[in-house]
Automatic annotation (TrEMBL):
The keyword Transport does not apply. This is Protein TOXD 2. Keywords: Oxidoreductase. PANTHER family: ENOYL REDUCTASE (ER) DOMAIN-CONTAINING PROTEIN, HYPOTHETICAL OXIDOREDUCTASE (EUROFUNG). The keyword Nucleotide-binding does not apply. CDD domains: enoyl_reductase_like. Belongs to the zinc-containing alcohol dehydrogenase family. Residues 19-340 form the Enoyl reductase (ER) domain. Coiled coil: none annotated.
């Protein structure tokens, strides 16, 4: 059995300065009581990786490790990790709070909060599992905590012909979060699921469960959505913005119902007496949305770092620990594990080792994401060659 006892140093990708990361040898991360130590087998790229690297403004992230998604093998358990939940030798996947001194998945070894990590289902490879963690967390917070759609059943699909279905807009349907979100929304009984994406990816997006794809490049994108909803007499009450730009927020606000769900107008909705809800992967002030649509009741942000249940520093501001977010995320990861194991949720398309494997490949992948070269796939890198 593998042991970390004799490992002194390991390679990791570390921020050196704004826009600059280097592969360095450093001591293994300290193993906290409620964490596990993992030998990394694969990692995936997320937009937050290059943003952490490029948006260093006061130097507080210099020396920090990068990386959020991973798969690997458990080599040690913290003293507080409950027996039977995870064991040394388990294949695991999940997510870490990258961008901190001790955390970050881009390395030969990593530490991860045990409560949020799960065994890899036998029907998934490490490469597939590495693509999931960060985007599962986005779905968890965006669709379920912020928008409040019902969690899917682990056993069966909802019958939308006999239940009150919830219309949903997912703006940015070919982001990794959007592609997983479409699948979860379908299992939760959302109908219709309206998605914005490039026409090049329509077939893929429809195959995952979307009911209408609209080209976000078109100037009349919002009008097309409105016309579809009007033709079906549907009041759109929920929008999940996987882009979080001024343009995407504006489109979402335009197409969300403006009428306060007055059923006398003949529009079908299920949030009677409540205004529409908006959630985004990026912060969007509610007052900006309400300038376009005064009926919007709330604008929630998917702020994934709160899922760790630990206080942290963000842009110079201390964000308090949230036990509620930790417990919700832990329960959601267990549900997702069951859905993945039974093939009801499938990993999105993966591009493996684009630009090379190991940490050198990861550096190339970060640059690909920075330049906007990643569409409808997740970049995953195997860690069999971590050196420079």
């Amino acid at each position: 059995m593998e042991s970390a006892e004799f490992i002194l140093d390991a390679q990791a990708l570390v921020i050196r300065a704004k826009g600059e990361a280097r592969i360095v040898a450093q001591p293994l991360p300290c193993l906290s009581d409620d964490y596990i130590l993992v030998r990394t087998t694969a990692v995936a790229i997320n937009p937050t990786d290059w943003k952490h690297l490029d948006q260093v403004n006061v130097g507080h992230t210099a020396g920090c490790r990068l990386g959020f998604d991973y798969a690997g093998i458990v080599v040690a358990l913290g003293s507080a990790v409950k027996t039977g939940t995870l064991s040394v030798g388990d294949r695991v996947y999940g997510f870490c709070h990258g961008g901190r001194k001790q955390d970050g998945t881009f390395g030969e070894y990593l530490t991860a909060k045990a409560l949020l990590q799960r065994r890899i289902p036998s029907n998934l490879s490490d490469i597939q599992a590495a693509s999931l963690g960060c985007n599962l967390l986005a779905v968890c917070q965006g669709l379920y905590q912020r928008l409040g759609i019902p969690l899917p059943s682990a056993e069966r699909c909802p019958d939308i012909s006999v239940t009150k279905s919830q219309p949903l807009l997912i703006y940015g349907g070919t982001t990794a979060s959007g592609l997983l979100g479409i699948q979860f929304a379908k299992l939760s009984g959302c109908f219709p699921i309206v998605v914005t994406c490039s026409p090049d990816h329509n077939d893929y997006v429809y195959s995952l469960g979307a009911n209408l794809c609209v080209d976000y490049h078109q100037r009349d994108c919002a009008r097309q959505i409105q016309q579809f909803l009007s033709s079906k007499k549907i009041a759109l009450e929920l929008a999940w913005d996987c882009i979080g730009s001024a343009h995407s927020a504006r489109v979402c606000a335009q197409v969300l119902d403006h009428n306060g769900f007055n059923m006398e107008n003949g529009m079908k909705g299920i949030r009677h007496g409540h205004g529409p809800l908006y959630a985004s992967l990026m912060p969007v002030p509610l007052n900006l949305l309400q300038r376009i649509n005064g009926a919007i009741e709330n604008a929630g942000r998917c702020f994934g770092y709160t899922a760790f249940g630990e206080e942290f520093l963000k842009d110079g501001v201390v964000v308090p620990a949230s036990q509620e977010d930790l417990e919700y995320a832990a329960n959601f990861m267990s549900l997702a594990q069951d859905l993945l194991a039974h093939g009801r949720i499938i990993p999105i398309r993966i591009d493996v080792n684009r630009g090379g494997s190991g940490l050198p490949g990861v550096m190339n992948g970060i640059d690909e994401a920075r330049r906007g070269k990643v569409r409808a796939v997740k970049l995953v890198y195997t860690m069999d060659d971590c050196g420079q």
